[in-house]
Predict the 3D structure of the following.
Amino acid sequence: MVAYASQTGTAKEIAERSVEALGRERAALLPMSQLTPRQLLNHRRVLFVVSTYGEGDPPDPAQAFYRQACAVDAPALNHLETAVLALGDSSYRHYCGFGQTLASWLARQGATLLFQPVLADKCDPAALRSWSNALSQQFQATTAIEKPYTDWRLVRRRHMNPGSVGGACYELSFEAAIDTLPFWQAGDIAEVAIDQYGLHREYSIASTPGEGMLKLLLRQRRDTDGRLGIGSRWLTEELETGAIVRIHLRENALFHAPDQAVPAIFIGNGTGIAGLRSLLKRRLEQGNHENWLIFGERQSACDLHYRDELERWLAEKRLARLDLAFSRDQTPKRYVHHVLAEAQAEIREWVARDAIIYVCGSKNGMASDVDGVLRQALGGRRYAALIERRGYRRDIY
Ligand SMILES: Cc1cc2nc3c(=O)[nH]c(=O)nc-3n(C[C@H](O)[C@H](O)[C@H](O)COP(=O)(O)OP(=O)(O)OC[C@H]3O[C@@H](n4cnc5c(N)ncnc54)[C@H](O)[C@@H]3O)c2cc1C
Ligand SMILES: Cc1cc2nc3c(=O)[nH]c(=O)nc-3n(C[C@H](O)[C@H](O)[C@H](O)COP(=O)(O)O)c2cc1C
């Protein structure tokens, strides 16, 4: 069995490809949200592919497994052969923390680790090859685990916020350089290969397949000396219109639009509008108009990305409510969590009607404050119930 714990789809995808490499007739795939430590007693060999968040924490879908694993009555696993592929990013303090914790726990319970945990820094291809090789050696897996990239042509790059005091923001539009448009869903993530450095950068997709174009919204990021980041420089300055770029579309299943006609609240800042716009577009395509957008940026004069569209949707009542917080338009500064704090009663009312809350954009500058206000507005019981029914979906970075 290949078990995975994934927040934004990477571990899921690598687990799926591991199953394919092992052969579907031999290996099964299971999300850790459907696995308990006790169920490991029913399996002889389990491979884990897991990512890490927060302070070395598991992704949300593996929180329950981890809680049960820490309990005193966790089962002895002397019968079990196992291995761990830990995904992470070495710029975080707790690098691959959950994968390493999981491997230590498995060993402590008596399981045999078939090989040392493989740590993959930002999906480093060498680490993925070493996982692939280990699967070949241990299980005679046949195919390599490679990401399917497709060619896309940059057809337009648009500066979205001239005159802003904030970092420059660009919309990049790509058309497929192959005959059929690759499939994606609103909420998914584009991994753009930056081949000259052998790395990739991730961006929330801003468009739906219905638009026939893949759109991304990029903020130029600079280090303290003012030098542009690798992806920022290449994508917003060097890449010429007409150039071909390799992009992999990653399914981000925990951030998709709901299938049911429930209300939805979209909260975000800056380039976070990208993920929210694709979801809103999807909702409008589905005919679901109970949409509430709470968006924050710096200056109303330059930073309301997709202004015309949002104002049109509002006038057409396809967007039920639009609240904007522009931090630099007044003192004291105003942010999206201030809007939320003022609208607590309405938030409770929407949540009582099974609204789904989407949050997209800055993890530190926005999502943590939004989370604080939500907990307070809903109270512990309703907040827990919201998470339990998968009503709180986040794409934050
Ligand atoms: C799931 C996901 C979705 C994303 N969606 C978008 C999006 O829609 N639009 C968008 O513009 N970006 C998005 N990002 C961020 C993007 O992937 C890159 O990290 C960003 O473009 C910077 O890359 P770079 O190569 O230009 O900078 P780098 O060369 O990697 O670094 C440049 C400088 O930025 C600093 N830095 C790197 N990451 C951060 C950070 N998170 N916070 C503060 N400083 C940092 C570095 O320390 C360095 O000083 C997303 C990230 C994730 C994980
Ligand atoms: C908000 C955020 C927090 C993260 N925290 C950590 C961390 O503490 N340690 C680490 O090694 N990696 C961290 N990462 C990197 C992820 O684990 C890595 O990108 C992984 O490939 C994501 O896999 P997933 O898409 O399956 O969730 C973090 C990434 C994000 C976006």
